[in-house]
């Protein structure tokens, strides 16, 4: 994809995501800053923040768990390199602790793919598996939404016993919901 394609796709994705009732009524959204070729999230983060939504962004800890900080605009992000991995954009301000995510009304999850059952394939570090387990232990029931390109919604992804399905996937062409309400 060219830089123009990425910008256009990011705008389409943000527009689709912002139409979700789960995001329209959310007071707090846990999200992430896209990196590399992931669908862009900054337009979405900025619009949520402009709506008065408290946006939490992850901070990768040495053990691959996630702490959280508040998104205060693109200027509040620090580019952090974690070992030999890719650079991540993390909030530079106060750390709120790993449990801060349990206050989210919606959690936007990164992924490589989602299948027709709503199972998400991550990057393999287990960070978001820990987030989902933390939410479950806390009895928190936020909307779980993955942002992907259309070609990343596939028939089947491998799953482990600890994996949990997401509620929806948003792509530039639309929203697909999973679960009993679909």
From TrEMBL:
Its catalytic activity?
(6S)-5-formyl-5,6,7,8-tetrahydrofolate + ATP = (6R)-5,10-methenyltetrahydrofolate + ADP + phosphate
Query: NCBIfam families annotated for this entry?
Result: MTHFS_bact
- Identify its protein family: Belongs to the 5-formyltetrahydrofolate cyclo-ligase family.
- Lineage of the organism: Bacteria, Bacillati, Actinomycetota, Actinomycetes, Kitasatosporales
The record's annotation in InterPro entries points to: FTHF_cligase (IPR002698), FTHF_cligase-like_sf (IPR024185), NagB/RpiA_transferase-like (IPR037171)
Organism, scientific name: Streptomyces levis
Protein's name according to its UniProt entry: 5-formyltetrahydrofolate cyclo-ligase
Its needed co-factors are:
Mg(2+)
Q: Does the keyword Lyase apply?
A: no
Coiled coil feature spans: none
Q: What is its EC number?
A: 6.3.3.2
User: Can the keyword Metal-binding be found in this entry's annotation?
Assistant: yes
Question: What Pfam families does UniProt report for this protein, alphabetically?
Answer: 5-FTHF_cyc-lig
Superkingdom per UniProt: Bacteria
Q: Which Gene3D superfamilies match?
A: NagB/RpiA/CoA transferase-like
Keywords for this entry?
Answer: ATP-binding, Magnesium, Metal-binding, Nucleotide-binding
């Amino acid at each position: 994809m060219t830089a123009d394609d990425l910008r256009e796709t990011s705008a389409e994705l943000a527009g689709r995501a912002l139409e979700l009732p789960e995001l329209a009524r959310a007071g707090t959204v846990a999200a992430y800053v896209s990196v590399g070729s992931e669908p862009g999230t900054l337009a979405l983060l900025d619009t949520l923040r402009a709506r008065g939504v408290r946006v939490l962004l992850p901070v990768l800890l040495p053990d691959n768990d996630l702490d959280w900080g508040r998104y205060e605009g693109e200027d509040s992000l620090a580019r952090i390199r974690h070992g030999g991995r890719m650079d991540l954009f993390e909030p530079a301000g106060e750390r709120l602790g790993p449990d801060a995510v349990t206050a989210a009304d919606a959690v936007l999850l990164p992924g490589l793919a989602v299948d027709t059952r709503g199972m998400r394939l991550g990057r393999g570090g287990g960070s978001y598996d820990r987030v989902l387990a933390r939410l479950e232990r806390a009895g928190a029931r936020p909307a779980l939404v993955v942002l992907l390109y259309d070609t990343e919604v596939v028939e089947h992804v491998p799953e482990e016993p600890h994996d949990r399905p997401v509620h929806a996937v948003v792509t530039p062409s639309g929203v697909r919901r999973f679960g009993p309400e679909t």
